Amino acid sequence: MLPNPVGALSAELSYILLLFGLFVLPRFLQRYRIPSAITSLGLGASLGMGFGLFLHDPTVELLATFGIVSLFLFAGLDAEVDELRREARILVEHLLIRLVLLGGVASAVAWILGLGPRPAVLVALALLTPSAGFILESLDRLAVSERERFWIRSKAVASELVALGVLFVTLQSTSAVTLGVSALVLVGMIVLLPVLFEAFARRIVPHAPKSEFAFLVMLVVVCAYTTRELGVYYLVGAFVVGMAAQEFRERLPAFASEKMLDAVESFASLFVPFYFLHAGLPLRREDFGLDALATGGVFLVTALPLRLAVTAWHRRIRLGETVAAGVRVGTSLLPTLVFTLVLAQILRERLAVPGAVFGGLIVYAIVNTMIPAFVLKLPPPEFEEPHAHELPPSDAAAVGYAAAADPRGGPSEGS
């Protein structure tokens, strides 16, 4: 029975109002550059804290699972392996820098907050890991050039891939036996996936055309629940299936085609709001007390400038870009919303971190997710620079930034 403390609404009407709130209110607030994910998270917090509605509701939990699974499937599918290989040297450098940064931040967190090694590593991951699925899904709404878009996509996917590996080892490191068994199961799943794709292509597709999407969704749910049972949440299984489908594209191109990506993105857009709603439901007022707000503020003023500076510095040295160009790429990679929400939940439920740390991570995720929409904002739809199409992509994007910053439509002061 749906929790309804006021007793005034039927379960059916409550769900109808919920759907209206999830699919209408976020779209309305996007005109003010508030990401729909933040609106859905806030709606969940309001329903949970204010009315006690939909707490532990099995329907919402199921739809939320579809949301998080589809988001990480999309990230895995959008991982262009050939592109990653072409720029492998720079991406490897980026990942090595990330690992060093992760070790340094984890050590600082353990020392300052008095946490053990495992929770300290998870907090560092929550602070540093861009949420690839969320970033890729919102990339078209940011004023970035095609070259910048490539680097944003590549770095987000590569960073998340390494972060998932670190997450897996950290959560399973309670004993050598646990880590070994879990690693064997994960490796077995990775080895088995190409066999399943091959069998599907040979045995099923000739007799059931256009069944690729249904098979992919079924497979990703099974693998996601498998990694969930291993104790590393749904993320790893969903991402691995997406990467496996991407690698199988030569044998069955439909698995990694633009049409499949569009289908998965549409599927995700339908269910992802339920994930953010579900993530907001268990939030409590005390999660946003003064100590949590102060902790979140410390995270913001230390982690965000550090991440921007490292990205801009690396791109300046290796690619000869201007600092402004590096900062644009770094700003696009700031959102950590999904990864931080998942890790914050694990930290509270399984590792019992202080409430101030949990609340601080939520504050940090909300703020860093909103930054790109305001900093890398698109020009008004009716604006079109007369000769923008004649400019190189990076210069054309710069014109858009200047125009968006200046309401008169011309270059802003000091540009």
Shape: globular
Question: Do you know the CATH architecture of the largest domain?
Answer: Up-down Bundle
Helical segment tally? Answer: 18
In N-to-C order, the SSE pattern is HHHHHHHHHHHHHHHHHH
Low-pLDDT segments: 1-8, 378-415
Rg for CA atoms: 22 Å
The overall pLDDT average reads: 81
Structural class: mainly alpha
Question: Number of DSSP strands?
Answer: 0
Distance between the termini: 60 Å
Query: Regarding CATH, which class of the largest domain?
Result: Mainly Alpha
The total tally of domains equals 2
Q: Tell me the fraction of residues in β-strands, as a range.
A: under 5%
| Biggest β-sheet description | none
Percent of residues in helical segments? Answer: over 70%
What do we call the CATH topology of the largest domain?
Answer: Na+/H+ antiporter like fold
Describe this structure in words.
73% of the residues lie in helices and 0% in strands. The longest helix is centred in the C-terminal third of the chain and has 30 residues, at 290-319. The chain has two domains: 61-366, Na+/H+ antiporter like fold (Up-down Bundle); 379-415. It has helices at 11-23, 25-29, 36-51, 58-77, 81-86, 88-113, 117-128, 132-138, 146-171, 176-204, 212-230, 235-247, 258-280, 290-319, 323-332, 337-350, 355-375, 393-405. With 415 residues, the chain is mainly alpha-helical.
